[in-house]
Each structure stands twice: as C-alpha cells, then as structure tokens.
Design brief:
Layout (H helix, E strand, L loop, with lengths): L1 H11 L1 E2 L2 E2 L2 E4 L3 E2 L3 E4 L2 E3 L1 H12 L4 E3 L5 H9 L5 E5 L3 H6 E3 L5 E10 L16 E5 L6 H10 L1 E5 L2 H9 L6 E4 H10 L6 E18 L8 H13 L2 H27 L1
Parallel strand pairs: 3-7, 3-8, 11-12
Antiparallel strand pairs: 1-2, 4-5, 5-6, 8-14, 9-14, 10-13, 10-14
C-alpha cells in the first residue's frame, strides 16, 4: 500500500518529461530550527526535510519567502509544497496536514530587558503589557486568544526588528523558543541587555506540514517513522546543537569580514 502511495505522489509531483522539484519554506528567524542567511533557508528543519524527502525519491528546493506569514501563505495557496516546521493549532489544521511526530519540542519563554524584569508566575501577570510578535506567529490557541484579548500586540516581519524593539524598550517582552532566544540575543551582542524570565510560557512542538488535500499527505506516515527513529538514536538532538554552532559561527564570520573592511 505504501509503495502505491509513493508512486501516486511521484506521479502528481511530476511535470511532462521530468520530476517536479518540490518547494519548501520555513520560519526565517528561528535558529537553530530554521533561519535565513544570505537569501538561503538554513537550520535543522530545512536540511532534515530535504534529506527525508530525498529518501523517498522526492527532490526539495528550499526557498526564503521573506516573513513567516508569507511562507504559510505560499504553501496554503499551493505555490509551495512544504512548511519545514510549524506549530499546530486549530486554524492551521484546517489548512495544513501535519506530521504526527514532532521535529523539535520547543519550550517558549519570555525575554525582557534585564533592567525591566517583572514577576511572571502565570499569564495574568502579562495582562496590559506590550508583546512583540512576528507576522504569522502563534504560541498555541489558548495563548493566542489570551494575547488578543489582554495584551497590546506589536507585529514585525523579522526577528532582528523584534529584538531591537525589546532592547530599545518599545515592547515589554518577546516570547520565543528558549534556544532560539539565547542564540539571537548572543548573535546580536545583547546577552548582557536581555534576560530570560525563568517561567515557561508554554511548550510547543514543531511538525512538518503540507497543504491539506495535497498528494504529499500520503508520505507523512513515512516521515513520522523516520523522525521517530532519528529522535530515538539521538540524531536530532546532535544535529540541533550542530545547527546552533553553525548559526553562531556565521556571526563570527560576518564580524571578521566587517573588521577586514574597516
């Protein structure tokens, strides 16, 4: 049965006389899961998705579409095929089919200015504060509803913009994955200015997603099987650390180029 489904997918994803290259996109500012550098989509999720689909005989081209909301739109409307990693919520589940197995478990924490820390024991402590979010960001249905009703929301298109607004005190806090937040603040040289509050906001999970109704839904069980294997043998944890190191190395290389030009 699985062999038949793969054949069906290969047929649908083919152009006359050639195999069609699938297009995948991801979050442009969420290292080490995914990020964009020099116009290229990089990180754990893009490289992993390309490899897993290649194992099935499907070629994937990684695209950087600008902001996160644009990536979701491109896949939802059929101009792209795969979101390399995304949170699940009710609205997205109407539009996308997700792998059951997650790519990454992502504890979401709050980053604030070190000199503007506040007590955070539950969500009520956030009421009335200004939160910085990226276009398309979601941190689960419950928090999204809470934020819409009780917070002042400011959205921007890039993680650099959001972090910059936090440094300047234009927003009160920035929810972000713990690992990603530390990497971004370190790369931007703001680790002495910004600090993580100790309480976790929520833990979310990144999944591979394809457009609902797409022929690619047929391969998701095989993607699940391979993701489970890679979690079990520690491969994903190791590769996540490798991608974090790569992200920081890019910053060091950029600093070296800038110094050479001065």
């Amino acid at each position: 049965m699985m062999r038949f489904l793969f054949a069906l997918v290969l047929g649908v994803c083919a152009l006359p006389g050639q195999a069609r290259e699938l297009i995948a996109c991801g979050h442009p500012a969420y290292p080490p899961v995914s990020w964009v550098a020099n116009g290229e989509l990089r990180g754990l999720a893009p490289t992993l998705v390309r490899e897993l689909f290649a194992e099935l005989g499907l070629s994937v081209r990684l695209e950087a579409f600008g902001n996160w909301k644009r990536c979701l739109l491109e896949v939802r409307e059929g101009r792209a095929d795969i979101v390399v990693a995304a949170y699940r919520n009710r609205e997205r589940e109407r539009q996308f089919a997700f792998s059951l197995q997650h790519v990454v478990a992502d504890p979401i924490v709050l980053f604030v200015r070190r000199d503007r820390q506040f007590a955070f024991d539950d969500w009520e402590d956030l009421r009335g504060r200004t939160v910085g979010l990226l276009l398309g960001d979601s941190f689960g249905e419950r928090f999204d509803r809470f934020a819409a009703a009780n917070l002042r929301i400011e959205r921007v298109s890039s993680g650099r913009q959001n972090l910059g607004k936090l440094v300047l005190g234009r927003i009160d806090f920035m929810p972000v994955g713990m690992h990603s937040g530390h990497l971004q603040s370190r790369r931007q040289g703001q680790e002495q200015v910004l600090v993580q509050l100790p309480q976790t906001l929520v833990t979310e999970y990144y999944h591979v997603a394809v457009r609902k109704g797409s022929a690619l839904e047929a391969v998701l069980p095989e993607i699940d099987r391979r993701l489970a294997e890679l979690h079990a043998d520690g491969s994903i944890a190791r590769r996540l650390q490798e991608q974090a190191d790569l992200y920081l190395a890019e910053a060091a290389d950029a600093d070296g180029i800038d110094a050479a030009l001065d």
